Every structure is written in C-alpha cells, then in structure tokens.
Amino acid sequence: MSKTVAIAGLGAIGLPLARALDAGVDGLRLIAVSCRDQIKGRANLAGFQDPPRLVDISDLSVADIVVEAAPAALFERIAVPALEAGRIFVPASAGALLPRLHLVRLAIKTGARIVIPTGALLGLDAVRAAAEGPIDSVTIETRKPPAGLAGAPYLQQNKIDVTALTKPKLVFEGNALEAAAGFPANVNVAAALALAGVGAARTGCGFGLTPA
Fold it and tell me: Residue 13 maps to which CATH number?
C-alpha cells in the first residue's frame, strides 16, 4: 500500500525531491506541497505528471509522511501538526531538532516517527549500535570555504571576519548543541551524528575554514 508524502518548501532540497517523487518512487505518492511564493510554486509544479496540491503549512499533515525542507524559522509550524497527527516526520533541517527535543517526546506520546536523513554522513547504524556501549564522546570536524558559513550568528556575535582569510582557520569548537545555536544552517550532519550517538552535549563539533 502506497504512503502519501507532503513537502514543506520547494527550494534546493524540496523541489528536486518533489520532481523525483513525481517521476515515480515505488510505494510513495506526492499529494501536497507548501511554499512561500505561491506563484513561483505553481510555475515549478506546472510540468508535473500528477501535480500535488499547494497547501498551507498546517495542512501538510494530511499526508502519511511530512518532509521539512523549509527555513528553520518554520520548523515547529511544520513539525508539530505532523507529530500530533502521528505522521512520519522527515526534517532536512536536523540541526533545528537539537534544541527542540520536546518534539521527540511529542512523537513518543502520539506514536509518530522522526526519521533523520543521513545526508553526507554514512554508517549511522554503526554509530547507534556503538552508542549502546561505554562511549564518552564523539567528535566531528567540518571544513568549509569561508562563504559556506556566511551570515552565521556565531561569526556575527563574535565579530569574526572570514572574508580575508589567506590560510586555514578554526573558527568554532564546542558541542553540537552550541553549534546548532551558532551555525543553524550548517549543523545537519553533526545533528544526525548527535541524535544517533551519545547526544548533543557529548558530541564535539568544530568548524574550520579553508580559503580557496
């Protein structure tokens, strides 16, 4: 029996996913999407074989699976209705889940499921299994070009200018929860590692910048 899918956001993640589902994925059928720009959204969906409905964020929970691929500011508006309805919630912005673990408790209460995409990180099943043993901490180090962290709150708050870097520089070292607050657009992989492993407080995270 097919499961229905709804997607919040038709940007760099949501639109390719919507196209892939429209092209055909066994067992899945796209029925609804939401996006900020309705006119652009309709244009993007015009060539679909079976165009989904454009709906408000609050109505995405009609589907069995709700995928979040929207700005982090909308995270709870997407997650809460889906979890309250007992749906499968798939957050592309996994980092936004770290400071909102009450959503995990809500999922447990309603029988909903939260499925974290692994993204660029392989072997999360092994991490999850290892976390059953005596692991004290896990560390992940991320290297990015300076533009990759542009606009990050941590850089702005600490007045760190990375535009004129001429050599590699470590700009942040802390745990995954602190990284989620300082670099909300850049911690999805670290968040997935933390959630699969020993938790955000014991998952170390470092951001290094490497000039081109």
Answer: 3.40.50.720
How many structural domains comprise the chain? 2
Q: What pLDDT score does 86 carry?
A: 98
Contact 51, 17 (CB under 8 A): no
What is the block-wise mean pLDDT of the chain (212 residues), using blocks of 10 residues?
94 95 96 94 94 95 96 92 97 89 95 85 68 76 82 90 84 89 84 82 86 74
Which is nearest to 52 in space by CA: 2, 10, 112? 10
Query: Does residue 119 form part of some domain?
Result: no
What pLDDT is recorded for position 17? Answer: 96
9 and 109, same domain (yes or no): yes
Is position 7 within any domain? yes
Output b/e per residue, 74-86; b: 16+ Cβ within 10 A: bbebbbbbbbebe
Query: Any idea which residue has 């809500």 for tokens?
Result: 106
What is the C-alpha to C-alpha distance for residues 52 and 63, in angstroms, rounded to an integer? 11
Using an 8 Å Cβ cutoff, are 208 and 142 in contact?
Answer: yes
Q: What CATH code is carried by the domain that includes residue 155?
A: 3.30.360.10
pLDDT of residue 126: 66
Query: Tell me, what's the pLDDT at 192?
Result: 82
The confidence score (pLDDT) of residue 151 equals 84
Angle subtended at Cα 7 by Cα 76 and Cα 185, rounded to the nearest 5 degrees: 55
Q: Which residues does 26 contact at the CB level (< 8 Å), separation at least 6?
A: none
